[in-house]
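Quick check before the chapter quiz. The format below is the same one you will see on the exam, so make sure you can read both the input and the output lines.
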Amino acid sequence: MGRAVHLMELRGFCFATPDEVMADPAFSLPHELVGRYGGGLWQRLRHERRREQARAPVEALLREQAAAWDARGPGRVRLQVRGRRAL
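Here is the expected output.
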Protein backbone atom coordinates (compact mmCIF):
# COMPACT_ATOMS: atom_id res chain seq x y z
CA MET A 1 0.00 0.00 0.00
CA GLY A 2 2.92 2.33 0.65
CA ARG A 3 3.93 2.29 -3.01
CA ALA A 4 0.37 3.09 -4.16
CA VAL A 5 0.24 6.04 -1.75
CA HIS A 6 3.63 7.24 -2.98
CA LEU A 7 2.48 7.07 -6.63
CA MET A 8 -0.67 8.98 -5.79
CA GLU A 9 1.35 11.68 -4.04
CA LEU A 10 3.58 11.96 -7.12
CA ARG A 11 0.46 12.55 -9.21
CA GLY A 12 -0.66 15.39 -6.95
CA PHE A 13 -3.08 13.64 -4.65
CA CYS A 14 -3.01 14.81 -1.06
CA PHE A 15 -4.30 13.12 2.05
CA ALA A 16 -5.98 14.52 5.14
CA THR A 17 -5.80 13.25 8.67
CA PRO A 18 -9.02 12.08 10.33
CA ASP A 19 -8.99 15.24 12.49
CA GLU A 20 -8.75 17.45 9.39
CA VAL A 21 -11.65 15.60 7.76
CA MET A 22 -13.84 15.84 10.86
CA ALA A 23 -13.09 19.59 11.12
CA ASP A 24 -14.89 20.14 7.80
CA PRO A 25 -18.19 22.00 8.38
CA ALA A 26 -20.10 19.39 6.37
CA PHE A 27 -19.48 16.90 9.15
CA SER A 28 -20.62 19.27 11.90
CA LEU A 29 -24.24 19.30 10.70
CA PRO A 30 -26.63 17.31 12.90
CA HIS A 31 -27.74 13.96 11.51
CA GLU A 32 -31.50 14.21 10.96
CA LEU A 33 -31.83 11.98 7.93
CA VAL A 34 -31.67 8.26 7.45
CA GLY A 35 -31.76 7.58 3.73
CA ARG A 36 -32.68 4.47 1.84
CA TYR A 37 -29.13 3.15 2.06
CA GLY A 38 -28.12 4.81 5.33
CA GLY A 39 -27.11 8.35 6.20
CA GLY A 40 -24.86 9.28 3.31
CA LEU A 41 -23.36 12.75 3.32
CA TRP A 42 -24.57 13.70 -0.17
CA GLN A 43 -28.10 12.49 0.53
CA ARG A 44 -28.12 14.45 3.76
CA LEU A 45 -26.86 17.65 2.12
CA ARG A 46 -29.47 17.33 -0.66
CA HIS A 47 -32.18 16.75 1.94
CA GLU A 48 -31.10 19.82 3.93
CA ARG A 49 -31.08 21.98 0.80
CA ARG A 50 -34.56 20.80 -0.22
CA ARG A 51 -35.89 21.33 3.29
CA GLU A 52 -34.59 24.90 3.35
CA GLN A 53 -36.09 25.56 -0.09
CA ALA A 54 -39.47 24.33 1.18
CA ARG A 55 -39.21 26.12 4.52
CA ALA A 56 -38.39 29.59 3.16
CA PRO A 57 -41.75 30.25 1.41
CA VAL A 58 -43.68 28.94 4.43
CA GLU A 59 -41.79 31.21 6.80
CA ALA A 60 -42.35 34.17 4.45
CA LEU A 61 -46.08 33.43 4.36
CA LEU A 62 -46.24 33.18 8.16
CA ARG A 63 -44.41 36.51 8.53
CA GLU A 64 -46.81 38.11 6.03
CA GLN A 65 -49.84 36.74 7.85
CA ALA A 66 -48.51 37.88 11.23
CA ALA A 67 -47.94 41.38 9.84
CA ALA A 68 -51.46 41.43 8.39
CA TRP A 69 -52.87 40.29 11.74
CA ASP A 70 -50.95 43.04 13.56
CA ALA A 71 -52.17 45.65 11.06
CA ARG A 72 -55.84 44.68 11.56
CA GLY A 73 -55.58 44.38 15.30
CA PRO A 74 -57.20 41.60 17.33
CA GLY A 75 -60.42 43.59 17.92
CA ARG A 76 -61.37 43.46 14.24
CA VAL A 77 -61.24 39.68 13.92
CA ARG A 78 -64.50 37.79 14.46
CA LEU A 79 -64.71 34.13 15.31
CA GLN A 80 -67.55 31.66 14.93
CA VAL A 81 -68.14 29.69 18.12
CA ARG A 82 -70.78 26.95 17.96
CA GLY A 83 -72.79 28.78 15.35
CA ARG A 84 -72.73 32.12 17.22
CA ARG A 85 -70.61 35.15 16.48
CA ALA A 86 -68.04 35.92 19.11
CA LEU A 87 -65.83 38.98 19.41
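If your answer matched, good. Residues 2-70 form one domain.
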